[in-house]
Amino acid sequence: MKKHLIVTIFVVLSILFFSADLISSYQDSYILSNNYLTTGISKENGYITFFKSNEAAQSLFKNHKILISGVDFQNSVIETSKYSISFIYDQNDFKVVNTYTLQEKNLLLSTRITNKTETKKRIQLNEIIDYSDTFPFFIKSKVLNNYVLLLQQDYGSFGYFPVYDQTFQRVIASNQMGTSISFFVLEPGDALEFTRVITVGESVSEIEKQYYDKFGIDYTTIEKNIILSNEKSAKGMRVVLEDKLGTIQDVQLVDEKGKAKFYLPYEEDYEDFQVKVDFGSLKTESVSLLGSEDLLVQVPENYFFFKPFLTDKREDGVIINFRMAVPARSNVEVYDSGSEIMVFEITNKFPLEYHYIELSGLQPNSFYEYVINVEDTYTLNDVKTEKKAFKTKHLDEDIDTFRFIVYGDTQIYDERHAYIVNRIVEDSDLNTAFILKPGDHTEEGTSEKSWSIFFESAYPLSSQIPYYMVLGNHERNSILYYRAFELPSGGGDYSKRWYSFDYGNSHFVILDSNILESSNLYEKQMKWLEEDLKNNNDKKFIFVAFHHPFWTTATEYGNMEENLPNGHFNTKNWLPIFEKYGVDVVINGHIHAYERHFKDGIMFITSGGGGAKLNTNHGADPLPWHVKHVLGKLHYVIFDVYEDSIKVTVKAVARVDNPLFPNQYTPIDEVIDEFYIYKK
What we know:
Elements: H1 9-17, E1 23-26, E2 29-33, E3 37-42, E4 48-53, E5 63-68, E6 77-80, E7 84-90, E8 94-103, E9 106-115, E10 121-130, E11 138-143, E12 146-153, E13 156-162, E14 170-173, E15 177-186, E16 191-201, H2 204-215, E17 219-228, E18 238-242, E19 248-253, E20 259-265, E21 274-279, E22 282-283, E23 287-288, E24 295-297, E25 304-314, E26 317-328, E27 330-336, E28 342-347, E29 352-359, E30 367-374, E31 383-384, E32 388-391, E33 402-406, H3 414-427, E34 432-437, H4 448-462, E35 467-469, H5 479-484, E36 499-503, E37 506-510, H6 520-535, E38 541-545, H7 569-580, E39 585-588, E40 594-599, E41 602-607, E42 626-630, E43 633-641, E44 645-655, E45 666-678
Parallel strand pairs: 17-24, 33-34, 34-35, 37-38, 38-39, 39-41
Antiparallel strand pairs: 1-2, 2-3, 3-4, 5-10, 6-7, 7-8, 8-9, 9-16, 10-15, 11-12, 12-13, 13-16, 14-15, 17-20, 18-19, 18-21, 21-22, 21-23, 25-26, 26-29, 27-28, 27-30, 30-31, 30-32, 33-43, 36-37, 40-41, 40-42, 43-44, 44-45
GO molecular function, one term: hydrolase activity
Pfam families: Metallophos
Protein name: Calcineurin-like phosphoesterase domain-containing protein
C-alpha cells in the first residue's frame, strides 16, 4: 500500500464514511475536503481549526476566528449541503450566519448579519488568522494600497481578501497572526452579507496574479532564468524580489522551464528592484530585476545537516525530524520488523530543507523499521539512511509498566554526548519508551553548526527511540530549536515552548523555566500549568520537567538563590501548584552534577551529566530536604514506572578526574543512586 503525505486521516475519513459529500466529522471538528483542500471547522464555535492544501502535510495556518461585537459564537444551529456548512447564531440583537464553501482551491467565507432590533447598530467584525505555530517565509498585508493578507510557507502559500472588494478596511499582520478589521452600520431590520476568500497556491506571486486578474488590475510579467551549476532543473526553487532597501516584496517559485515569473502592476517603479535565489542553503547574489543577467546557483553535495531524530511517540506512529543541507524531496519506506514486508511508503512532494515525516496508521505496541530516501532534486547525489527500527506506543490502558531515560546538559562536549548516547544504546533496547532531555542540548542554541553536531551525536539513539525535549538557557529560545523538533502542541512560541503528554498511568508536563517573572508569557504558562494539572488529576503519577532546579548545593559560579530555602521565583510560584495537584517527580538539568531533594512528598531529581563540563564546587550547606549529590561523573537516569511505584536508577558511565581535561575520562559502570517512589 502506498501512502502519501498529501493524504491525511481527514481525507481518508471523508472517503470512507461520507463519499457522497465533501463534509465529514472527526472528533471535535467538521471536515470539508475536495481534490485540492482540506479544512477543519470547530463544532463548538465554527472557527477554522486547520487549513491545508492536499499536496502538503502541514496546515498553512493554525486557526481562523471571527469576532463580531455583541455576538457570542456558541450554541449554533448547523446546516450542511454537499459543498458547504453553515453555523447559525440567533441571539437577542443579531442573527449571524457564517457559511464555509469549498470551490476548487478556494474556501469562501460568507457572513450574513441581520439587525433584529429597532435601532441603528454599528458593528465591528474582526477576523484573526493565527499562524503562530508555523514558520512563514514571507508575509504581506498590502497589494498596491489595498489591504489583504498573503503568506508564503515552505510548502505553499495562501491569500485572504474580500470577494467583491479589492481591500479590507484594515489588515494588521505580524509574524504570528494577521487581523482584518471591518466596520458596518445596520439599520433596524436590515441585513448585510460580507464574503471573503482564502485561496491557496504555490507562491505569493501566483496568488497576486489571481488577485490582479479578478479585479482587472493591469500588470506586466518579468521573467528571470535560474540556472544550476550542475545543469539540473531548478523547478520549485524559491526566488525573491527585493526593493532598493533589500526588503522582500514578492516570492515566486521556479517553473518547469527554469524561469521565475513575477507579475507586477504597471503603476509601480521597478528600476531599483533586484531578484535573488533564497532557498535554504541555496542562495545567490542579487541581480537587477530589469537587467538581462541570469541567476546562477552553485549547488553543493547533499547530506543530512540535522540527522533523523524521532519525537512524539504515539499508539499508531511517530514523527521523524531531519534537515537537509540542500532542500530536496524525500521518501520514507516503513517495514514490518517481523516479516520485513513494506507496510507503506510516504512521499513528500515539496523540496524542503526541514522535514517532519508523520508516520501514522500503524499498530500499537509493534516493531517497525524505516528507511529515509532523499532524492537528488537539485544535487547530483541522493541520500539514504540505513534501516532503523522503532516501536509504537502501547494503548495507555494496556501499559502495566514502562521505562524512560533522562540525561541532561550535553552542550559543547559532543564527544562525551556521543559516548553517553552509545552507552545508553548498549544498555537499552527498543522497549525503552522514550528519552526525556531537560535542556542545554547545545552550547550555543543560535549556532547551526552546534545543532548539526548535536544531532550527529544523538543519532544512534534518537533514530530509534523518540525524545521529548525541554528548553534550557543555552538554547537562547532560538528558532533553530523550534524548527528542529515537532513536539506535542502546547503553548508559548510555536505552541511548543511548554506542553504535556500522557504515557500509561502517568502524565508528563514540560515547562520553560527561562521565562522571566515580569513577562506576560510567565502568567500564560502559569495558567496553562494549573489548568493542565487540574484536567489530569486522574493519573497515578505526575512528572514535571524543566531546566533550572529549585535547589542545589552548587557554588560553581558563586552563591545562588537556589542555595537558599526559598529558591528562585519559579520555586515561589510553581511549588504551591505542584503541591496542590499532587506532582510526584520534578526533573531538572542545568547543574552539571547529580542531585536529589525530597520535600512535601515530591522527589526533585537533577541530572546534568550528559556530557557538559562537570561541576567541581558544591560548597553550599545542604538544605534539610537535600538527599544526595554526586560530582564528577557522566550519568543518565532510568525510570521504571509500575502500577503503584517508580524505581529510579542513576547509572554513572564515566569518571572525569581532571576538569582541565574534560575529554579525558575513565569508563565506569556504577549505580550511584537507586530508590523507589511510592504514590502519596
